[in-house]
């Protein structure tokens, strides 16, 4: 489908889904965003749903302003995927050992590495800029500086919630490695600090929703936020790179005879800010639950822990600010999923996948998510499908 346009106070709201299927609270969030004086455009992806602070699946283009809550608290959260030389025939019938080895190599949940992992520990992982990156930590908000040691130990770790590490096969039988994570606790604390600062600024006192407090250009608060934002986005990128290196190392060791090789990685943020130009204007584009989909650009759109994912290529649709969805999107809250589904339901819906099937991940059950196939179908003017993947191993925090 193409987009549906509904009225908004400052700009129309372009939606790549049927507005009738969107929760009332999410629609109200979007209407609130459309009242912001600085807004120049608002695009809504088919995985849209209510989110804390701002709507998941929203792409907000503003001039000389940025809303930190519209980035989300997991700054730089995103995906990485790589196709391997393995095929489905190389995989053992029992994948529990492989899953266990991945869980040993990559700390999950609140776990962290006992000693910091450095890019130089891995052959072929780029180290250029690593020292300069950590040097910029000296400039982050004072309120968060004491977290430096923890941030070092958490880089290369998964976290929890909807984050995952997967081994997948595509429709040709090729084996892929895929993972989803962000800037861990350091990104969360930086986000929460700056959201608190923004909410106290005088120009935000008259907003219809205090969660939509913004920083404006040429102010010290904006400069401080941008410094920390871009640092956290880079942290998230390094976090995924190191995790992928750890994952590749596991696969090399488990499949020594196959002498596994890996194609170049596909990687994309889906909670971030980017400076972009549209209709002759320099804009700050915030994607919360959306990926960049410029013409020819590769991206990843995952489903849930039992339904599979898509590798896509962007079509460069400027009506969406060159964006696409970041996943299937939730159709019910975590609490609602826990009330609705049992561990038996989880076992049924993840049959054939080597993964956790306990009460701790019932809120991540496939039934709590929208249909990934339908979400892909709704954005045929935003991306083209390159590969369809189905997980055989899924590691959750």
In short:
This protein is of the alpha+beta class. It contains nine helices and 18 strands.
Description:
The protein has 397 residues and is α+β, with helices and mostly antiparallel strands. Helix content is 26%, strand content 27%. The protein contains nine helices and 18 strands. A hairpin with a 6-residue loop joins strand 14 and strand 15.
* Proportion in helices: 25-40%
* Rg result: 20 Å
Separation of the first and last Cα atoms: 35 Å
Q: Total strand count, please?
A: 18
- Report the total helices: 9
Q: Tell me the strand percentage band.
A: 25-35%
Give the biggest sheet: 8 strands, mixed
- Give the overall form: globular
- SS content category: alpha+beta
- Weakly predicted, low-confidence segments: none
**What is the mean pLDDT?**
96
H and E string: EEHEEEEHHHEEHEHEEEEEEEHHEHE
What oligomeric state do the depicted chains represent?
single chain
